[in-house]
């Protein structure tokens, strides 16, 4: 029998080149798939991080809105407290002014000497202006001395005095100012405070 001899007529280098080319293309395909997988994984991780951050932002915005609401409630409570404190102060001042009004009018009567008659009394702040008629100028001076000696009045000043004659009697019309003080409040502005008159 004859043995067949096989002769490879193909160039072995060409076959090897083709094989390497196939291996290279396969490796390139695997690398491209790997790169695509990494890109997809990166995009997924990025999207997940964005979603997570957006969820955190929503949570923070909700917390900020709640805190803003609480701050508004606190400000409303502080305003209510300030209003209550103001009302309490007004009530305290009214309670104190009750006795001051009594003292004020009591001292008006006590300081008035005989022969002096008041025709009007006007109070503006701490200053009281009185108009009156006196039997003589000396009676007006006595009235001013009495006002100055009172613990509730201070600094009497004669604004105007003019003599009038009605028949056989002479009289003096006068206007004078004096300040109202409160001896019960020595810590108030030099120990002085107004006694309010209606």
N- and C-termini, Cα separation: 153 Å
Determine the strand fraction and express it as a percent band: 15-25%
Examine the coordinates and then state which fold CATH places here, giving the name of the CATH topology: Gyrase A, domain 2
CATH architecture classification name: 2-Layer Sandwich
DSSP, total strands:
4
Keywords: Coiled coil, Membrane, Transmembrane, Transmembrane helix
Transmembrane segments: 24-46
Organism: Spectribacter hydrogenoxidans
InterPro entries: Extracell_DNA_Util/SecSys_Comp, PilN
Produce a short descriptive summary.
The chain crosses the membrane at residues 24-46. Helix content is 57%, strand content 22%. The chain has helices spanning 12-111, 137-149, and strands spanning 116-124, 127-134, 153-166, 169-180.
Structure description:
The protein is α+β, with helices and mostly antiparallel strands and 198 residues long. It has one domain: General secretion pathway protein M, EpsM (Gyrase A, domain 2, 2-Layer Sandwich), CATH 3.30.1360.100. Helices cover 57% and strands 22% of the residues. It has helices at residues 12-111, 137-149; strands at 116-124, 127-134, 153-166, 169-180. A four-stranded antiparallel β-sheet has the order 1-2-4-3, with helices on one face. Helix 1 packs across helix 2 (137-149). The longest helix has 100 residues, at 12-111. The radius of gyration is 53 Å and the shape is rod-shaped. This is PilN domain-containing protein. Keywords: Coiled coil, Membrane, Transmembrane, Transmembrane helix. The chain crosses the membrane at residues 24-46. Residues 50-94 form a coiled coil.
């Amino acid at each position: 029998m004859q043995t067949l001899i096989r002769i490879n007529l193909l160039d072995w280098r060409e076959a090897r080149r083709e094989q390497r080319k196939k291996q290279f293309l396969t490796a390139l395909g695997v690398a491209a798939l790997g790169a695509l997988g990494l890109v997809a994984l990166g995009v997924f991780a990025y999207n997940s991080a964005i979603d997570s951050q957006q969820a955190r932002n929503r949570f923070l915005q909700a917390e900020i809105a709640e805190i803003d609401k609480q701050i508004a409630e606190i400000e409303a409570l502080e305003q209510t407290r300030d209003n209550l404190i103001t009302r309490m102060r007004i009530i305290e001042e009214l309670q104190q002014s009750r006795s001051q009004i009594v003292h004020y009018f009591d001292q008006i009567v006590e300081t008035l000497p005989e022969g002096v008659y008041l025709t009007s009394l006007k109070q503006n702040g701490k200053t009281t202006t009185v108009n009156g008629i006196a039997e003589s100028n000396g009676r007006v001076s006595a009235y001013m001395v009495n006002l100055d000696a009172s613990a509730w009045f201070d600094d009497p000043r004669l604004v105007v005095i003019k003599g009038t004659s009605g028949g056989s009697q002479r009289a003096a019309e006068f206007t004078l100012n004096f300040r109202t003080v409160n001896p019960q409040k020595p810590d108030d502005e030099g120990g002085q405070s107004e006694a309010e008159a209606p």
